[in-house]
Amino acid sequence: MTKSGLKFSRRTDKDVAFDQYEAGVPSYQNAIDLLPGWTGSFPDALKLKAGRLALYNDHRIAWMIKQMGSLEGKKVLEIGPLEGMHTYMIDQQKPDRVDAVEANRLCYLRCLITREILGMNHAHFHLGDAMAWLKEKPERYDLIVASGVLYHMAEPVELLRLMAERSDAVFIWTHYFPDVSEKTEPWRQAFSGKTETRELNGIPVRLYERGYFNASSNASFCGGPKDRHYWVHREDILSLLTSFGYGSIEIMGEDRNHSGGPCFSLLAKRN
Fold it and tell me: Which CATH superfamily is domain 32-269 in?
């Protein structure tokens, strides 16, 4: 009892906020912290803590944009946007539309948070399988972007075929299997040793089976939807793209000594 005569009860568990509610001051950082496992960082000026990689300013995507000349008014399909940082770079070029298709549920939610924080006027994020999108949607695109996707696929040859059906220009950053490699190299450890050859357009495509070894249990996992996936031989990627009618294939930033395995960026265009 107080001097005013009012009664106050002691704090009980009924006064504790439910776990599904955020009790702090509203902020973008609260949204980032909601989802664990971020890979990319945000621009320094925003003073936000997420991942380590500055994918919002990726030199590979900057090179692609420069080689394309202009994306203004273009229709772009991005396969596997991860957290939407590359999408942001494309969106800044004022395309007519960007359809960004992400199968990983956590990555999809991170994309929505990135769109809210960085602001995107032309990008639309879609949760689901990109190969199903390519098979079922009739749209053609001026450019298809698949950065960090091909080497995670259970059916990489089919993905390349479907991309070629939907666009006269494709950008790919991927790891590949080289002509020569030492079995003792760290990146080789995830391979099963099994190989397959699949033929398309008269081209025998060499595939090398790989697994994730339970990496998918980590919140930051951003690989493919199936444990069994394949890397494609370097020359077979280029031969397939040529067979699809891409007369111009430009390669940038090839790194045969990358810790994750040999990799390159390429932009393939039909004349």
Answer: Vaccinia Virus protein VP39 (3.40.50.150)
